[in-house]
Amino acid sequence: MTYENILTAIDGHVATIQLNRPKVLNALNQRTMEEIAAALDAFEADAKVRVVILTGDERAFAAGADINEFAGKTAVEMLEGYRFAQWERIRKFPKPIIAAVSGFCLGGGCELAMTCDIILATETARFGQPEINLGIMPGAGGTQRLPRLVGKGRAMEMILTGRHLSATEAVAWGLANRVVPAASLMDEARNLAAEIAAKAPVAVRLAKEAVLKSMDTTIELGADHERRLFYLLFATEDRREGVQAFLEKRKPNFQGW
Ligand code: CO8
User: Fold this and answer.
1) What is the residue range of 241's domain?
2) Catalytic positions, please?
3) Which among 170, 51, 62, 49 is positioned nearest to 120, based on CA atoms?
């Protein structure tokens, strides 16, 4: 697929997707979502890629779904034409995704960041679910993910008022991991990605799966699931290498199997 609305790069084990529709603050039209999903499909198939960074530009991570695209649509047209299939592909991507957020991160943009695994934010980042101001509501998981991250009352406040959170508020509320200086956002994201990429890839993948499972199941079922994944890791060469390296007081050299 030739990309029109995103830029992609691979450096070592870290792949980057940059949203690239600056004139509309990286508004997420269908084509952009298709491209993100296609890039992730390619990164999933590429064993060299272990972590993905998703970012926008200085002014916006993404200011939401592209309002022009859905402005004239009827309910039936939305139902028939907007199946959220690309969102499901992002949700099921098995390797860690770090969202590096600067500027506006609103509506579908905030939902996209929440679909990622870790969110780094610059001081200029603004998070919000302003759909209510358009007479609609979040439609890409916002009403489900936001309360799990910030709690019911805070999610209600954001979704029912459309208020934007500053980066420091987003961290205090548990939406973003930490605030980093704007100038070093990508360096911070790359360092974090490289740190995770140096771990045993199968353990990283299964740990991500187990943590995500905690968001939609009971502790009992989640812990059962966790235990099966835990046992499975004992079948990997990297588990043997990790333990051996500890016993030999050296750094492990993980191979990915
Ligand atoms: N869609 C389309 N174009 C947009 C969007 C958007 N979401 N956001 C900004 N733009 C465009 C503006 O129209 C403007 O274009 P132009 O220069 O041609 O007039 C350009 O980007 C720059 O924007 P502004 O001039 O408005 O810049 P300001 O700095 O004055 O304001 C704001 C920035 C506050 C971010 C403002 O642009 C704004 O409020 N944008 C809309 C935010 C919003 O409501 N987002 C939610 C959209 S609905 C949604 O996300 C539903 C998700 C449902 C499921 C997911 C499906 C993908």
Assistant:
1) 201-247
2) 65, 108, 111, 131
3) 170
